[in-house]
Amino acid sequence: MSASLDVTSLADAEIHRLREDFPILQTQVNGHPLVYLDSGATSQRPQAVLDAERGFLTTLNSAVHRGAHTLAAEATELFEDARATVARFVGAHDDEIVWTSNATEAINLVAYAFSNASVGRGGAAAEKFRLGEGDEIVTTEMEHHANLIPWQELAARTGASLRVIPVDDDGALRLDEAVRLIGPRTRLVAVTHVSNVLGVINPVEQLIAAAHEAGALVLLDACQSVPHLPIDVKALDVDFAVFSGHKMLGPTGVGALYGRRELLEAMPPFLTGGSMITTVTTTSAEYLPPPQRFEAGTQRVSQAIALAAAVDYLSAVGMTRIADHEAALGHRLVEGLSAIDGVRVLGAGIDLPRVGLASFDIPGIHSHDVGQFLDDQGIAVRVGHHCAQPLHRRLGVTSSTRASTYLYSTESEVDAFLEGVAATIEFFGVRS
Ligand SMILES: Cc1ncc(COP(=O)(O)O)c(C=O)c1O
Questions:
Q1: 301 and 383: one domain?
Q2: Which of 84, 110, 120, 318 keeps 20 to 30 A from 8, CA to CA?
Q3: How far, in Å, is the centroid of ligand 1 from the Cα of 53?
Q4: How many CB atoms lie within 10 A of CB 189?
Q5: Structure pTM?
């Protein structure tokens, strides 16, 4: 790979070298060079990640933690090394990372562990996860549906109630309301670190402190932060954190749950079956310690190994430099969009640090038309509600268009996108 361990910011020349590592970035779309501004949905993969997955499948493919043969032993070693790499990347211990299919499954894993504890599974150790009437789960109005619906379902199954921290007219979390909503009845606070619609980095430290003061656990949806910022789960002092491989240069089909070791040890499993047990009779089973207790069934081995290669790639470039580069692109996006007559940038007024992501509405043009017009110029963006209907509703729109960057995005791509948006407005003739 062409990335280097430079401590200075990512210079244009280096980004252009980096881009050569990503075969898809060399493609043309509709006769134009691809301008990929949809990394918030899924990121592109460098050759090193493609090679890691293919290399494993070509020479070592086998199931892990099962076979006695050479391939199985080597696959198991690589699989566990991959876990250690991902754990180090977020500041966790190796046994505090559970492989999942994606962040959605990781959140559901925690929700089902609470649910199973609430019907008496897990014995005395699982007391912390038992919910019933009078208990409260707190989340926010800006969550991705993945960090909302599992809690709605958990509340419905256990009789606990769901409290929702509102956002203000700009879309910023109402911290005054958070302090009021988090109290002695709160058992869990589930919050997103970075909004997948607004691109702002939430001041989660304050929520984490308030939750812990109230004796509640905290689950951080780190889907949009782990790929873009240096993250240390211990420094953040969260109890659980979730993220997806495909948003951080890795493959689809793999994600991770971080859980504090003593919590994972006390938690009943979500999925049950092979590979998560020590002893089984026809009427009962004893479970392995975490993380294996939460990894029932044949695992996603090539994907985990490729995710470790993605993490190595990101680490070699440097997460602080990636964050700085994307903060600059994020501001260019927000300022550039705000300067276009007829564009309303969601959350533009929020005074918080940002990643390289911005969503906007053009009253009079449906986001699908905006996306299609941009696509005609080779510019790929996300349109719709971005799995965050409550936030869109609160901001008075049903959908928006989202541009999101990554380490391989350039200022000139952002500028091409801004010109594309201006041309869209010109074409549809809807200036304010
Ligand atoms: C903030 C946030 N949370 C959760 C998810 C769900 O991720 P996945 O679909 O990979 O499980 C996403 C994906 O867009 C996201 O942006």
A1: no
A2: 84
A3: 22
A4: 29
A5: 0.97
CA distance 331 to 178: 27
Q: pLDDT at position 10, please?
A: 87
Of the chain, the end-to-end C-alpha distance in Å amounts to 47
358 and 416 together in one domain: yes
Of the residues 254, 280, 315, the one at which a domain ends: 315
Are both 268 and 132 inside the same structural domain?
yes
Q: Measured in angstroms, how far is the CA atom of residue 339 from the centroid of ligand 1? A: 30
**Could you tell me what percentage of the chain is helix, strand and coil, using 3-state DSSP and rounding each to the nearest 5?**
45, 15, 40
- Cβ atoms of 383 and 401 within 8 Å: the answer is yes
Give me the sign of the Cα torsion angle 113, 117, 121, 127.
positive
Q: Does the C-beta of 103 come closer than 6 Å to ligand 1?
A: yes
- Residue among 39, 104, 151 to mutate when testing ligand 1 (max atoms within 8 A of CB): 104
Q: In terms of domains, do 145 and 106 share one?
A: yes
Phi, psi of 351, deg, nearest 5: -95, 75
What's the gap between Cα 144 and its chain centre?
A: 10
Residue 11, pLDDT score: 87
Ligand 1 neighbourhood includes 102 CB (under 6 angstroms)? yes
> Is 387 labeled as catalytic in the residue annotation?
yes
Is 404 close to ligand 1, i.e. is its CB under 6 Å away?
no
Considering the candidates 387, 397, 422, 430, report the single residue annotated as catalytic: 387
- Percent pLDDT > 70 in the chain is 98
Of 426, 409, 407, the closest CA to residue 365 belongs to: 426
CA distance 215 to 208: 10
Mutating to test ligand 1, I would choose from 196, 246, 254 the residue with most ligand atoms within 8 A of its C-beta, which is 196
Task: Name the residue range of residue 66's domain.
Answer: 53-315
The closest alpha carbon to 39, from 377, 333, 256, belongs to 333
Q: What is the CA(103)–ligand 1 centre distance, in A?
A: 6
| Any atom of ligand 1 within 6 Å of the Cβ of 130 | no
Give the tokens for residue 97. 């990372």
Q: Which residues contact 98 (CB under 8 A, 6 or more apart)?
A: 106, 109, 256, 257, 258, 259, 264, 290, 291, 294, 295
Decide whether any atom of ligand 1 lies within 6 Å of the 196 Cβ.
yes
pLDDT value of residue 182: 98
Q: How far is the CA of 223 from the centre of ligand 1 (A)?
A: 6
Question: Are residue 158 and residue 111 in the same domain, yes or no?
Answer: yes
Instruction: Collect the ranges in the chain with pLDDT lower than 70.
Output: 1-8, 431-432
pLDDT tens for each residue of 271-311: 999 999 999 999 999 999 999 999 999 999 999 999 999 99
Number of domains, the chain? 2
Same domain, 407 and 265: no
